[in-house]
Design brief:
single chain; 205 residues; 5-stranded parallel beta sheet
Length: 205
């Protein structure tokens, strides 16, 4: 797939999740003129990748994109997160990041997050490697997985999820995925370790 075609298809996919105008996403990411975008969209319609509404993907267009899903709390973004997200992005064409809700974070961390879920979403959205972040469903990760329908689910080195349980859960929603366990070049760095090191003073960082 050519870079411009990939940009257009991925932008339309992201728009379907975010509710944004796909043309605006294309312009923001590619700095391309409206004339060139329109011409390429017409070409993609002819190739049955985009529907005639010029805003949504056909089944062929959607299946031609490899979507990667990654998830986490992202309360304290550190180099390990950046490496993991870059590695996840390299596995496909689009990277969607799921942010744990405040209630889920409290259950996992045994404390309230330093930043609420919308603030954490804003932080992750500011990373250029991420195409879109969304706040996950409460209590059932597979509702979010079913919404995104990724081809790849990327797990961080320190995430508790087991590859087998993820694969089995995806089969229940008729989704065939590859589960990739990513490694950190600096595994001694994690949000939990940072929190333990700085303790209560972390609120002042």
């Amino acid at each position: 797939m050519k870079p411009l075609e990939k940009l257009i298809l991925s932008s339309m996919y992201v728009a379907s999740l975010s509710g944004k105008d796909p043309i605006e996403i294309i312009k923001e990411k590619g700095g391309i003129t409206a004339e060139i975008i329109d011409s390429k969209i017409e070409e993609c319609i002819s190739n049955q990748l985009i529907n005639k509404d010029k805003k949504t993907l056909t089944e062929l267009g959607r299946s031609s994109l490899k979507v990667v899903l990654a998830g986490g709390v992202f309360d304290i973004i550190h180099p390990g997160h950046i490496h993991t997200l870059n590695a996840a992005r390299d596995l496909g064409d689009v990277l969607i990041v799921v942010i744990a809700t405040d209630k889920t974070t409290e259950k996992m961390k045994k404390r309230l997050p330093l930043h609420n879920q919308e603030q954490r979403k804003m932080l992750v959205d500011s990373l250029s490697v991420v195409d879109l972040s969304i706040v996950g469903h409460e209590g059932d990760i597979f509702k979010t997985v079913d919404l995104i329908r990724p081809q790849v689910i990327a797990l961080g080195y320190d995430q508790i999820h087991q590859e087998k349980s993820i694969t089995e859960g995806c089969k229940k929603i008729n989704l065939d995925v590859t589960v990739a366990r990513l490694q950190s070049p600096i595994p001694e760095v994690s949000s939990s370790i940072i929190e333990k090191k700085y303790g209560e003073n972390i609120h002042d960082i």
